[in-house]
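Budget justification, computational time. The allocation requested in the original proposal was used primarily to generate structure tokens for proteins on the priority list. As evidence of use, we reproduce two of the resulting records. The first is shown immediately below.
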Amino acid sequence: MQNKDACTSIMVGKKASLDGSTYVCRNEDRVKAIEPKRFLVKPAVHDRHETYVSPYNKVTVPMPESGMRYTSTPSLDQSAGPNEEDGINEANVAASFTESVYANDRVLAYDPFVKNGLAEDSLCTLVLPFIHSAREGVEYTGKLIAKYGSAEGNGMQFADQDSVWYMEVVTGHQWVAVRIPDDCYAVTPNQMAIEDIDFNDPENYMWADGIREFVADHQLNPDENRWDFRHIFGTSTQKDRHYNTPRTWFAQRYLSPKAAQGQTPEDGEMPFIRKAEFKISPEDIQYVLKSHFNETPYDPMGDSPERKTYRAISLSRTAQSHILQVRDAKRFKTSIHWIELGVPAFNPYVPFFANADDTDESYRNVPAKMDLKSAYWLNEALAEVVESHYEEFMEKDEDYQKELNEWARRKIAEVDQKASQLSGSELTAYLTKQNHEVAVHYNERTKALFYELLTEGCELSKMSFKMDPNL
């Protein structure tokens, strides 16, 4: 099992969002502070005859003959598998795969993980090219788990233009999934989140075959009159209360300020699904994923004695963050894969049109060592400079992010207008070209701020010295 201990996920239904899109989003946090990521478009394949073998744990799966094109964010280092993590395919289905979740020892005693089963490195590669709806994403993954088993606990998000599903695979073979109501959102932070399962409502819930018998046969349900997945399979530990639940608390505090009144950072019974108290925009999602308990005593960038009490949402070891915005195909010709590289608190989300057949060289070619031609390394460098003089540089950094968000909205509207008149390969070629233009604009603006702050930082050195004129 990989040591991940990471990630914060957000899902938003179409009636809860400002523009009617569905959203699946996640900070991909890693153990190391530096883990270079690439942003690629994987081409469609036809008449393929090959078997996938994981470099990480040797799970071996025959690949379907045909697979769709999709965006992905693989790790530069492929020695532990592709770790493609997330993307949007040409059927307009989005998926984000690897929210690490942890089961209790009671359930794992009877259904332990399968060493060479499905793991984080393989999920996106083995599922996203082959699904045509969010629901099919759950069904397809469930069949793979039944056949090969799971090597670890993972939460997975699937979205199409009409629905959002969240699936938790928690032991070698046991899993459940729930459809997020259209007027709701959900947040999950590295712990089991799904609560009551209604086995009489298969339209909104799915589950592994035999899961009720598994729980009954081994006497695993601690409740008298409910079937709460979190209670049966989940954990409630000191780590949960300091590492996990505070992130849900902060997100719900922002997105549902009235309903969340009275909740505390260590509350283990916060609801997984919440009604939105206002229409949620991409900027709202960004705020949550970028947050570090801002304006609370728990902000690690502050000076409160409690600043290190809880694990924040935005971390220095976030490899990448994404907001997958699935738009109505009747209104728009493409969905949007927003990607953030560097530290979310300090770096912008860049909107790329998913109906494309290539990515910009600065996202595609990522060297193993620092090179400012690479978007990954450029953003990491900017984040390091901003954090090093946080009080002096944060306002300029926030202005830069706001400016780019404004530019992004104008650019998306401009592209949508032109794209509405195109179709087929002409449309894809146009959107691919626009993605290159987006990358160039963000890279140039980021370099300009980086050089400006680097120069200003020289004046802030603790090694500077001015003679006292009175001496």
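The second record produced under the same allocation is shown here.
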Amino acid sequence: MAPVRATVQAVPLMATAVVMLDSATDFFPDAPLVGVLTPVRLAVLAGLVATAVTAPRLATFRTRLDPAIALLLLSAIATTYVGGHPDAPLRALLTALATFYLLVGVRRAQPESWRAVALLALAAVAAAATSAFAQVTNEVPTGFCRTGLFTDVDCDSGGPGSMIRATGTFANPNLLAAFLVLLTPIALLAAVTVAERTARVAVVSVGLVGYGAVLTTFSRAGCVAAAAGLLVLGGAYWLAPRLGRWGARTLTVVGLAGLVAVTVALWVVSRAGDALGVRGQAWKAAVDLAVDQPLGVGLGRAGDAVSAAVPGGRTFVHAHNMWLNWLAEAGVAGLLGMVLLTVIALATAVRAAREKSVAGVVGLAALTGFFLAATVDHPANLDRIAMLFWLVLGLVMAEVPGRWRDSGTPAEAPARSGRRARRR
């Protein structure tokens, strides 16, 4: 019986590996094996079923994000079926949400699984980052070039001073930067899984390669987000455990206020003509679309709708802001759901970091950088990034009880194991 149980427990971790490998390299085909079940969806479904078998309690999957997720899901269903839009983007959203609950279940049912998640993240970062450096060092054309940090040029006519913008395993540099900003802090979590000093040096070296690869993208938002993530990583590691409850709440409020201030400032500027160029046009169009269609234009349709609303024939893939993109696609309810998710996720990460959870510390750094980048871009528009984003959310939300009135930490192993590893 023990071997059978061990095999069943391995299934969720294997499913997590499939998700992270596919997010990093697009390893698995997107074509369905049967019906709408792609290889990744089949793996996630198998992982959820195996977790439910080994930990058949609703509390295993309950999180504080459930109300926000319910609001996002209801808004997505409403805009899809009331608007008569294709349901493929809704299926992609359901897959990403399933990934979230898969990791929450894995972390709750198998507390030591954070070690496996960290090692998988390390491998994923290494794959994407080394691919990016290979493009730069071997001068592999990517179709993206710059003559500096602020000037895009055509690679064929950029001249000898042009620099290749690495794309790694993604379609464009900004997506690679978002991937690395989100996952590199999680990869550094592997440093507390090993006791030997040189092994930790190896882990940190891969992390440095990951952050270095962000520089090869020449993504302005990516570089700022990576720097912010590193700053939060250091600050949370040293400062958060020393904060009391009110100090942590103050830090959370200040951080959220800063994010709100940036969002409001961007919205104000977007209403003042073309002060922010094409992004300002996209943001203004997203707001106007929400006014005209309160239920949204449909999941995955913001790019086409914004392109049609902005004069000049420029093509947009999304609204260049995660929250405004949800506003355009799923209406006011979608925006409220994403705002609620942001607030709860950051507050939870701060609490976990204050309680000396190493997973909480790296999760806070990852989410801070990603949310900052999402104010001027929408990398989660790509399914691979979206699933990774929800996976990181699952890692963070598993660190605290599912209900606000509960105390204690259901997944305390990262904090204890991290301290043990540092003492050795």
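A brief technical remark on that second record: The two ends are 35 Å apart (CA to CA).
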